[in-house]
Write a structure and sequence with these properties.
Shape: elongated
Strand content: 15-25%
Helix content: 25-40%
Order of helices and strands: EHEEEEHEHEHEEEHEHH
Structural class: alpha/beta
Radius of gyration: 21 Å
Number of helices: 7
Oligomer: single chain
């Protein structure tokens, strides 16, 4: 029987890589499918992985109707056994319901891949509807890491290297800023640079990004109680108590 499966996780956990691998595996067994994506990092009508893999896909728009997309292709003689739906967090709840209808009414497997929560730790509307309707929700086993080495559980948005928790839910930004370094907030002669990185819960709650940690690592002040001890290079990796 066909299933609606939602593969979820933070950034950097291999969702798009798995989407491309699953598409390859099904095609290798003679099954026919369609790849869909929205707002991919490589541009319109693409599915891309940070490992460098990418392929063409159908770009999902607000006007996209998945039921009509499948029925149109079938009436043209195309075999449709499954759908690969990447960046599914950006789909509308109505589009997720259309995907469920495709599974239930015409036995087409739907494999959806997406981030569950946004930079504010709020569920994306598309992801929320997928959690509500999916036959299975599978958290990917490849763990993304925070800059401190712990398992990353949250996606953070930064503006000029400073973490923010307010703003529009969808804003295009650089996902490699944590590795490349971010400009300081004192540089005011440029448009704000938006970036994203994954953090563990501790550093998300304390709003300590990789850029902030690097700045603190270059200083050697007395350690305030409210600052994470692992940020202080003089701590030797052990906790300290505040006065």
């Amino acid at each position: 029987m066909a299933e609606l499966v939602f593969f979820s996780g933070t950034m950097d956990c291999g969702k798009s890589t798995l989407a491309l691998q699953m598409d390859h595996n099904h095609r290798a067994r003679g099954r026919g499918g369609v790849r869909f994506s929205r707002n991919d990092r490589a541009g319109e009508s693409r599915i891309s992985s940070r490992l460098g893999l990418q392929t063409d896909a159908v770009e999902v728009l607000d006007s996209t109707d998945f039921w009509e997309e499948v029925m149109l292709r079938r009436t043209q003689g195309q075999r449709i056994d499954y759908l690969i739906c990447d960046e599914a967090q950006f789909y509308t709840p109505e589009q997720v319901e259309q995907l469920a209808k495709v599974v239930d009414e015409i036995d087409v497997d739907v494999f959806a891949f997406g981030i569950t929560a946004d930079f504010r730790t709020r569920l994306f509307p598309g992801s929320q509807r997928l959690v509500e309707l999916a036959d299975r929700v599978q958290v990917l086993q490849v763990e993304a890491l925070c800059w401190c080495g712990r398992r990353a559980t949250h996606n953070a948005r930064t503006v000029d290297g400073v973490m923010v928790t307010e703003g529009a839910q969808v804003v295009v930004g650089d996902v490699d800023m944590a590795m490349d370094g971010a400009p300081g907030t004192a540089e005011l002669d440029h448009d704000p640079v938006v970036g994203y990185e994954t953090l563990c819960r501790r550093h998300y709650m304390r709003r300590v990004t990789a850029h902030g940690a690097a700045l603190m690592g270059r200083q050697d002040p007395l350690l305030p109680f409210e600052v994470d001890a692992c940020l202080w290079r003089g701590s030797g990796g052990t906790g300290v108590s505040g006065a």
